[in-house]
Amino acid sequence: STLANLAATLCASGMMDDGILVYRTVLEIDPDNTRALAGLTKAYYALGDFHEAIVHSDMAMEFGWKPNAAMLEVLEEHRDPSEDSLP
To answer: pLDDT at residue 28 above 90?
Structure first.
């Protein structure tokens, strides 16, 4: 979508907070938008907010998205032990 493209461009330009707001708008319109969920995962990961990255990664993976191995490893290291592991 155009909004998802804008969010990706904002994040790629280092404007993570703005990109996150736009991705959240996409999810208000389409809660199952895998691109927005994956984009939020990457944005929060880049900001070091691993809790939010894990939350959005889990949702995106329900729709078939796969984080790269390095990201998956870092997210697993930051997962609360009381939560389920990533697949």
So the answer is: yes
